[in-house]
Amino acid sequence: MSVRLMKKILKEQAELQHSEDEDESESESPPPSSATFRNPFDLLDDEDDGVDQEDKADINDRSSIEKSDEKQSSTTKTTPEAFVLSDRKFKKKKKKNNKEKSQPGAKDNENSWNESLEQLSIKDDSSHLEHVAPDPGKYNPTNLNGRGKVVKQCISSVLQVDPKFLNAENELRRIFGSKVVNSFEKGHQTGSSRQSRGGRRGSQNHRKTVLVCPLEHWPRWDGSLSMELVETRDGISDFRYVHTSSYSQARKAFESAKAIHDFNGIVNILLHHPYHVDSLITLAEYYKFSGEQQMSADCTARCLYALECAWHPMFTPLMGNCQLKFSCEINKPLFSVLFAHVKNMDRRGCHRSALELCKLLLLLDSDDPMGVLFCIDYYSLRAEEYTWLEQFSEQYKSDNSVWLFPNFSYSLSVCRYYVENEEHAKNMKVDDLKASSTDLMKQALMLHPSVLKKLVSKVPLKDKAWTSIIKHRFFSSDQTGTPSLDHLINIYVERSYLVWRLPDLQKFLRDAALSVIETLQNDGTDARDWKCVRKEAFSSEKNEYSHLLVSDFSDSVPTLPPDNLQNFMVDPRGEVPNDAEQPANHRVQDLSDRNAIAVLLESMLPWINYGSGHDQHDHDEQANEG
Questions:
Q1: Which pLDDT tens digit goes with each residue over 534-575?
Q2: How many Cα neighbours within 13 Å face the side chain of 211?
Q3: Which DSSP letter does residue 365 get?
Q4: Which of 34, 39, 217, 223 could form a disulfide with 196 if both were Cys (CB 3.0 to 4.6 A apart)?
């Protein structure tokens, strides 16, 4: 209820009551204007409390009217009717207050008021409302900042997302300075205005979002997507996206264009439905493979903007009380787009923004369908969030098992190395309860020795000492024999090899490896013990992480030849089909079971070419007959 509506209600109630003595002296001094403010929503709860709140609101109204009259007396004249109405209200309410003070039940009403406040955990002397726990049925946009008391009670601090770090511009200003970023933005805005020429003039009133900042040349949100609440269980609300009828029609057109590899059809869909998610993902992948990284990032950001605009009012993922299951097919685009946005932030050097996005992905689905656990350590090291990484390894999922993964085994030792350097530089006392960085590195080498040989080749490490180290029988192999572990090691080396290009870390790794070799020469039982731990942790004979592509964790950007781009088409999840590499004969295997007329009509399309495939097939048949 707004203050204006509350005053209107109070005014109507005052007019319904009979006016009392009008001839009293008008020389009575007004009551002080510092009356205690009370929550206006409580007027609807209790009739007695409503009367008391009404009285104090009228007193405040009286004092504000008199103050405004004093300020305006030099220039304007107030009508006597306004003073009469105000006087009537004030005299009547003052009399009523005096009567209530003399009544014996006034204290009981005050006690009941205090008891109700204690039950609601509301302070009577403050204008703020502080709830013990958030109500999932109510939406409070002020809690989206992720830093309030409500957020701390909902989620563990280890996954608390700070929205100010989600904005890449804030991190760039911190790194390069505001002047550099502002000059770059001016040049970018000039280019964007050129792109928007010929379209609708004037700036768009875009929604304010948390994940991305919409650009001026983007179209206005069309509301083609929405979200619904599926269920609430144990205080966690489960949501899913919903398509409108217009969006469903655009999706059908997208599937038709995808079936015939019609990229122009995808572009045509975006002209009529500028926020069709699958088409934007396809366009982003096209720009990425053609080398236009900025255009690809712009399409990804626009897609993320559309997905956030569709959020339900109760969907507050930064608070940790909502989830969006990846198993639901309609929710998958958000995960793939968020992960693509993480990689874009990494390419821009905004590693703290990438770290916060990784936290958000883990909050949305704890099953980690995108493999965030295998890159979050890299972003925390690049963002210099060493203390957070140690806390995460200890508190995530209430166990201490993440150190068994190869990426965490090595990253935690690097993390402890930098923490020790900071403590030594500040003359701080080293925590004796935690293992030293050297011990952690030796432990990582004993648990995952095959990582070392791959790092030497990938970084590369060209010191002569590495030649003798990798020739040792313990470090000579780069395979473990376990598909899951080998796949995770490949992901770690591809993602984090840049960390090991620093000379001080190379010396740190070399000294630890030499120490391990010396230990094994004295006693070989440690190697057998760590081998048993490795087999116990990764016991599956199948690759449990085959859905994670090593290329998704790589810094290198894939490209396609210009001849292949005309046949370019991607899956909505962002995966390029295998037939994209061989566009000339990618339909040959389908000809045997298809209608001849349909094949004839399809062959007339400029981007379809069956010639080389048929020629080769006929040549093989002639060779077999011969």
A1: 999 999 999 999 999 999 999 888 777 666 665 666 544 444
A2: 27
A3: -
A4: 217
